[in-house]
Amino acid sequence: ALICPDEESKREIMFYATQARESYPYYQHERIGYNYRMSNICAGIGCGQMTVVDEHIAHHKHLCGLYRELLADVEGITLHENPSGRYDSNYWLNTVLLDGNLHVRGEEDAYRETVKGAVGGAAGVTHESVSVHTSCEPNRNVEAMRVCLDKAGIESRPLWKPMHLQPVYSANPAYVNGVSEGLFKRGLCLPSGPYVTDEDVRYIVDEMKKCIL
């Protein structure tokens, strides 16, 4: 949905969202535009999802509370939550931060081999990296935890790598303070989908505890 303060703002936004094409019978572009219009199929899916959005958010919020409860006594692992009551998360994804001094089984083998096969949701993508290391990567205990959970049938992933550290943007200017790098090195995303059950969360946390030395 696009909510605009007035009609003029709507016209300007739609101009840029429809390739910024000028009013000529041929393609004339005096400004850079984009093709941001939503397809009918995506709009239909979106309308359907809006009917259950409250239930989904409530479920995700419940999962966060369960993760909070089960991880409360685990030293060295912190659930990433709202910084204060001023914020109201949609709880789309539950993530944890691992302290640098937390020891996890298999740390000595972390990054020993490149990842083979599909990564995360990239079904069918089997491109193999040429190196096991990059200029900035999750700490060894985070990678060891990911591998340990994977062996237990649990998919987890590191937090998103900061854009300024992506090789494709290496030549672009960046104004940073180290926060995003720190979160990337310590963070891990845990299963949080609409089909994750209470039993699943308990199993995930139990396996995480088993991974800790």
Polypeptide structure, described:
With 213 residues, the protein is an alpha+beta fold. The protein folds into 2 domains: 7-37, no CATH class; 52-211, Alpha-Beta Complex (Aspartate Aminotransferase, domain 1), CATH 3.90.1150.10. Helix content is 35%, strand content 7%. It has helices spanning 7-17, 40-50, 53-71, 140-151, 179-186, 198-211, and strands spanning 77-79, 94-98, 157-158, 187-190. Strands 1-2-4-3 form a 4-stranded antiparallel beta sheet. Helix 3 (53-71) packs parallel to helix 6 and helix 4 packs across helix 6. It starts with 6 loop residues before the first helix and ends with a helix.
Keywords:
213 residues, alpha+beta, Aspartate Aminotransferase, domain 1, 4-stranded antiparallel sheet, 6 helices, 4 strands
